[in-house]
């Protein structure tokens, strides 16, 4: 039986995995020993990882770079957010009987950190780790309405392509919709992303920018959106209170998809990219 040689990505994962444990700095020889890869391959991969910012080099020693720390912090932030939100999301799903989402913004797209719904909810085409354009989803519009102007500009540069006949495709009406969302505190998706599917979403925020959004979606949910809006708003507030405590206007990250309110992890405390890659239940 022929053993398949490891791919380049697998080799890079082995090299990064060598930095697991309490030793934050490793020499080339130590990485070779821990990874089990040929010295020439390790040397080449280390050089590439240094160029990409995944690792830093100090003389003969290598250590985790800032890019790795940023991703580790991002994963920790999302994990903390999801843990705080889950009890409230389950309660919202039980109360409404419809699909419930927790989403964050990543560039011009939303990423679903959580989705609750049974087999009967298959008509809502979403999944944990799935992505959708922000401009035509309730969660995306809820975050954009309470986000930085640079985020809105990025979405507009990417283009408002029609997904259905109800998608807003012109910048003027889209900006007017964001203004209405700021006034009422909730966002609606009336078949703008998928035919037949309607959603209502509320942003997770204190006195500043939104860091995420929670939504309720369903097939043929149009007539229930206004009734569900206060329930979704209340869930968003409850999640925020679980994260930061009641009445606290916490400092909001500059972007919604990454920086955490917690201190960044030190290299010796991180599990490196191998642990980050295993954090895959929302990816």
From TrEMBL:
Sorted alphabetically, the keyword list is: DNA-binding, Transcription, Transcription regulation
Q: Where are the transmembrane segments?
A: none
Q: Cite the IclR-ED domain residue spans from the record.
A: 67-245
Reading the lineage from the top rank, the first entry is Bacteria
Residues forming the HTH iclR-type domain are: 6-66
tRNA-binding keyword on record = no
Q: Where is the signal peptide?
A: none
Q: Which PANTHER family match?
A: HELIX-TURN-HELIX TRANSCRIPTIONAL REGULATOR, ICLR FAMILY, HTH-TYPE TRANSCRIPTIONAL REPRESSOR ALLR
Protein name, per record? IclR family transcriptional regulator
State the organism of origin: Streptomyces ochraceiscleroticus
């Amino acid at each position: 039986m022929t053993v398949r040689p490891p791919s380049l990505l697998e080799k890079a994962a082995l090299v990064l995995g060598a930095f697991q444990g309490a030793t934050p700095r490793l020499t080339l020889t130590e990485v070779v020993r821990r990874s089990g890869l040929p010295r020439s391959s390790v040397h080449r991969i280390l050089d590439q990882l240094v160029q990409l910012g995944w690792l830093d080099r100090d003389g003969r020693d290598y250590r985790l770079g800032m890019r790795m720390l940023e991703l580790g912090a991002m994963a920790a932030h999302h994990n903390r957010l999801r843990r705080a939100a889950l009890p409230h999301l389950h309660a919202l799903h039980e109360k409404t009987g419809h699909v419930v989402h927790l989403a964050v913004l990543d560039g011009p797209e939303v990423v679903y950190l959580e989705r609750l719904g049974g087999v009967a909810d298959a008509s809502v085409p979403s999944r944990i780790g799935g992505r959708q354009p922000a401009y035509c989803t309730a969660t995306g519009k809820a975050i954009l309405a309470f986000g930085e102007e640079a985020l809105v500009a990025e979405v507009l540069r990417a283009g408002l392509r029609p997904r259905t006949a109800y998608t807003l495709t012109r910048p003027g009406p889209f900006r007017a919709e964001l203004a209405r969302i700021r006034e009422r505190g909730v966002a609606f998706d009336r078949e703008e992303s998928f035919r037949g599917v309607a959603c209502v979403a509320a942003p997770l925020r204190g006195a500043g920018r939104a860091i995420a959004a929670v939504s309720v979606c369903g097939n043929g949910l149009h007539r229930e959106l206004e009734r569900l809006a206060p329930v979704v708003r209340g869930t968003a507030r409850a999640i925020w209170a679980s994260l930061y405590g009641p009445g606290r206007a916490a400092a909001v990250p500059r972007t919604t998809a990454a920086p955490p309110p917690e201190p960044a992890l030190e290299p010796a405390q991180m599990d490196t990219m191998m642990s980050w890659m295993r954090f895959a239940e929302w990816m």
